[in-house]
């Protein structure tokens, strides 16, 4: 498999999951602005959506969208228990979490990275993130150490990745001690350290 990524972007989530699975893979760095791979290939020709993550499967097919990719990877290594079994209520709970992270957290960060977005608008999105993180804080405090309890899942890889952006765009996590402890706990995992190092984000 081949993961197309941009350092620290949402593609870090499937990168962490790949490290967790132990499956063989390679990574291809993409310049998202130029739409070129590190080798100079036209990324539009690889992924018509133009963004990361995308994963080239062993049969040559392409799979896009982070929540779909991480579930595919989890199902390729079921013994790692990165996702509950398909058809179980717990699997739908996982999908519920992935959707929440994708639509309520991930998309709320997007305007904060846009230098042309007005400061007043950014303030609204930061307030929205604080409201959304309050639910995550309560869940972690009640269920921890991970989103689904004792077992690390693909939802944790995604939440860690998105929340890791907070410092870059000045989202205040001080009111969320359980979340901050969670971020440190996930960051210490060997899979996370390996992915961060491979992307040039850690020594």
TrEMBL record:
SUPFAM superfamilies xrefs: GST C-terminal domain-like (SSF47616), Thioredoxin-like (SSF52833)
Keywords: Transferase
EC category: transferase
One Pfam family cited in the UniProt record for this chain: GST_N_2
Keyword Nucleotidyltransferase appears in the UniProt entry: no
Domain of life: Bacteria
GST N-terminal domain sequence ranges: 1-81
Boundaries of every GST C-terminal domain copy: 87-203
Gene Ontology terms for molecular function: glutathione transferase activity
EC code(s) of this entry: 2.5.1.18
NCBIfam families registered for this protein in UniProt: PRK10542.1
Protein name from the UniProt record: Glutathione transferase GstA
Species this chain originates from: Pyxidicoccus fallax
